[in-house]
Amino acid sequence: MTNLSGSVLAAELALRLQTNTNIYIMYKLFLILVLALGLTAPVYAGNEIVRKVDDFSNLEIVTFKKQLKFERTKGVSIGTAWLTPEAARTQDGTVDSIRLKLIVKCNQTGMITRDPVRASQATGGTLKLKLDESVIELGAINQLSEVDFENSVIQGAYIADYTEQAIFSLSIEQLQAISAASTVKARVTGMNDLYYDLPHKHYKIHQDWLPEMRKFYNAVFNAAPTQTE
Q: Which residues of 118-157 are buried (b: 16+ CB within 10 A; e: fewer)?
């Protein structure tokens, strides 16, 4: 009788262990599936518009607290390009200037092998935005190109990852066109007419960029002038 009870207990423990193992395996498979399909909780839950009066120009600077994601990988939302607006306003609310700051990162160990184009005023750099069926062109206003390389050697191969930055000027009418668009894609051109397109065929435009640009447009043109002491 004792041997029988021991056998039943051992069988029950083995069954519980197998059940727990199966649950753990199913949980891991679920996590893998979630990551593969990009069903994770949003990593970008909106951005905050900030305002600050510049001490030297006395202009109110309107921009976002964090860089605005423009291009992202498919699946898990990893940003590879940021395109952030900034507007300067006088104390009576008049818009003095508007610009877009572009940051592009590239890991050349992956699928993307974009080379920097060194977009700047000196190279005649431009940013073309296709908004629905129309195209607007913005000129680079940074005097020199800004490209930061991070060199490494992986399995004997020399890898040069980089971050490229450029600043482009845009008009009120161009900002209005962006805020009214339902689709967008971009082409960055630099020296010797080199260019790359955003998004790359393996990537996509971040779904929040256009809604955030509409929010920015409203903040610039609908808000009351900043009060100074």
A: bbbbebebbbebebeeeebebebebeebbbeeeeeeeeee
CATH topology of domain 49-222: Immunoglobulin-like (2.60.40)
**Which among 202, 179, 216, 215 has a CA at the least distance from the CA of 72?**
202
pLDDT in tens, 4-53: 455 655 556 555 555 554 444 454 444 444 444 443 333 445 789 999 99
Token pair of 94 as six digits: 């008049």
Bridge partners, residue 157, by sequence: 154
pTM: 0.74
**Residue extents of the structural domains in the chain:** 1-40, 49-222
Residues (pLDDT < 70) of the chain are 1-45, 77, 107-113, 153-154, 157-159, 223-229
